[in-house]
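Students often ask why we bother encoding 3D structure as a string. The short answer is that it lets us treat folding as translation between two languages. Here is a chain of 557 residues written in the first language.
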Amino acid sequence: MAERPWLKLYPKGVPANIDPNVYPRLTDMLDACFKKYRDLPAFIFMGKSITFGEVDRHSNHFAAYLQSRGLEPGDRIALMMPNILQYPIALFGALRAGLIVVNTNPLYTPREMRHQFVDSGAKAILIAENFAHNLEQIIGETPIKTVILTSIGEMLGIKGAIVNFVIRNVKKMVPKYRLVNTVTFSEALRQGRNFSVKPHESGPDDTIILQYTGGTTGVSKGAMLTNRNLVANMEQIRAWLAPVMPEGKMMALCPLPLYHIFAFTVNCLAFMSVGGCNVLIVNPRDIKSVIKEWAKHKPNVFTGVNTLYNALLNHPDFASLDFSNLRVAVGGGMAVQRAVWERWRQVTGSPLVEGYGLTESSPVLCVNPVDENNRVGSIGLPVPSTDVRIVDEQGNVLPPGRDNVGEIQAKGPQIMKGYWQRPEATADVIKDGWLCTGDIGYMSEDGFFYIVDRKKDMILVSGFNVYPNEVEDVIALHPKVLEVAVVGVPDEKSGEAVKAFIVKKDPSLTAEEIITHCREQLTAYKVPKQVEFRTELPKTNVGKILRRMLREERAGS
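And here it is in the second language, the structure alphabet:
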């Protein structure tokens, strides 16, 4: 774009552009921050702190172990665990070994796991033992040969033994499993000490992360994120938040899972790159534990989604916390509601800054200013080195103005290389270098962007994308179902919830049967919260079911 009107509203000190090539490889950034901040705490989990130097040493051992198992540069490794100390060590170790990391949601069902592991061609996995029983069911159908198991308390010393006893024997959160030829994470680190990491060639355009995302067809696709993509987005975030991120002095509370692209880039990369310490929270739904960690560490920065902010504000103990160190809270993953935005500022005295992005953009495209220009309801201004525009259905660029609504498109060094082994899908979303987001919005006269609608069919449940086709495909497998359509409906807790409209094949079918069936096949947030039976579903003249009419019918009721 010849003109970037948003630059006039950039906070003082934020540059118009960043250098996406400041580090040729993400591991070069890691080496620099490990050296610079060696003695500072990098991550804290359940009271256990590890320094940058310790992460450096452990990740080198893990890298050496992976190479000793015959894994070569370009091979894929799945990381499947919640927020525990093992995650960043394994992440950085895998990258140092030249592997491509496949971030995997530990709540995935065996069906979802199988698709991701087969599609990515993953040869190795590090998985928390809590989910090993699911891996056991499908590992024979995948290319995975190297299995490394870990436990929640494995890095916590004596306390870890107590934590694991409670998890395994009291809470019974580790179902029985049988996997052969496995090794524990600790043993992998021990074995890795006997080897040196072999150097490998890697450049800015090499893929280092496969971050899976849903698609409008319901098929989960791996976004290929390169060294340059992640270095660029890290630099963009650093530049934008520099006023509230002093080097070596920042404490961030991290309840969002690091396997999710938001926390992955913002917390694990950008915050760490300035010597910040991330306090990891294993379960963001456990609001008591979030409040407990807040009281203990008094964070400067907090990252979350609207539903988490809302839950905190509605907890009786939250308002009594000490917010004197809090500089900013960042909201992503879903729209921040006005009521939450206003109440957050009122209770904490600090801004709640909404941003916008996609997995395909590493993810950050726009962020609100961390100053008096922070606007509720807006997704903010494009970050440095990023162009954003609004186009009509013919691809014509629309001028600013609330009435000029069209698709949001973006261009910048953070835009993915493409979808893994899906050139046609890539061509559908990247056109002449512009990422077609599918989100509908407009740009104000001064350069702020606003979303008025999302991808037509996508449902956003607590910040996670749910695509109707996938849920419909699962429901359609039930022998008593004739037809099904899935849409999103408003929900106070999760923003949106999944609702299924079903035409019965067998009159005896009940809503409980559908929900039970879905729980066996889908991650919890994808399972329909509401089921409504109909005698027929609205269709086009060629027989395509019209979800749009069901949504409009709901909105008009």
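Translate back mentally: The chain has a mean pLDDT of 93. Keep this in mind for the problem set.
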